[in-house]
Design brief:
The protein is elongated. It has helices at residues 2-20, 24-45, 54-80, 91-115, 165-178; strands spanning 134-139, 150-159, 182-183, 189-192, 201-208, 213-220. It has 224 residues and is α+β, with helices and mostly antiparallel strands. The protein has 2 domains: 2-118, no CATH class; 125-220, no CATH class. The two termini are 35 Å apart. A 6-stranded antiparallel sheet has the order 1-2-6-5-4-3, covered by helices on one side.
Length: 224
């Protein structure tokens, strides 16, 4: 059911535009733009690429798609004139209502992200960018059974050049500082998990081993 709802959420603007389009040129151009917009939330969900703006893409997608459909409708109206009336059951009226409801769903998703900032979350491995010469040897994967106040993910990072753990940790800290990680409580490094809507903080603890670095990624809650 969740998969069906997810694809429905992504493909709904295209379906509505199929009901609204009247010309081949504008219809094809708008459809291409809608497909490009749809690839953003799909790519983030399937980890084709990483972005801190996940919340913005999920909540902003229906708003952006609705705006594209509106501009396409206005462009066709300018070329072809007013849409001929077909009675109260015409597809255009239904598609317009669906697009408006779809945009409202985007606003609700943005609100839900504001409510989620106090819940623990499982950080993504892609949040940690490794410098050249370092690689992940072991990854526990996403935390499926989070504790009371945090989710954790443990990585073992090694040097592909045979460097000791202390030097690997130093290089990793330099890279993280360049990526915007800042000193946090308990000797950790922290940064914003999301961008504007998602204000959760990802926390990292580094532990030096003789030939490796243990990296603990945690997604703590924000208890009052």
């Amino acid at each position: 059911m969740g998969l069906v709802l997810g694809w429905g959420y992504v493909l709904l603007p295209l379906a509505c535009w199929a009901a609204l389009a009247r010309t081949r040129t504008v219809g094809a151009a708008v459809a291409v733009v809608l497909v490009a917009l749809a690839l953003v939330p799909v790519g983030l969900e399937r980890a084709w690429f990483h972005s801190r703006a996940v919340a913005e893409s999920q909540s902003g997608y229906p708003l952006a798609a609705g705006l594209v459909v509106l501009l396409g409708t206005l462009a066709e109206r300018r070329r072809c004139g007013r849409r001929p009336a077909r009675g109260s059951g015409q597809p255009a009226a239904g598609a317009t209502i669906v697009i408006a409801a779809h945009s409202l769903v985007g606003l609700v998703i943005g609100l839900l992200y504001q409510l989620a900032v106090h819940e623990p979350f499982s950080p993504d491995r892609s949040e940690l960018s490794l410098p050249p010469g370092l690689a992940v040897e072991h990854d526990t994967g996403p935390d499926r059974s989070c504790g009371l106040h945090a989710c954790r993910r443990d990585l073992v990072v090694v040097s592909t050049e045979g460097l000791p753990g202390a030097e690997a940790a130093r290089r990793l800290r330099v890279r993280m500082a360049a990526d915007g990680w800042a000193p946090g409580p308990g000797g950790s490094l922290v940064h914003r998990h999301g961008w504007l809507l998602d204000k959760r903080i990802t926390q990292v603890f580094l532990t030096e081993q003789p030939a490796a670095v243990t990296v603990r990624l945690t997604g703590p809650d924000r208890s009052p």
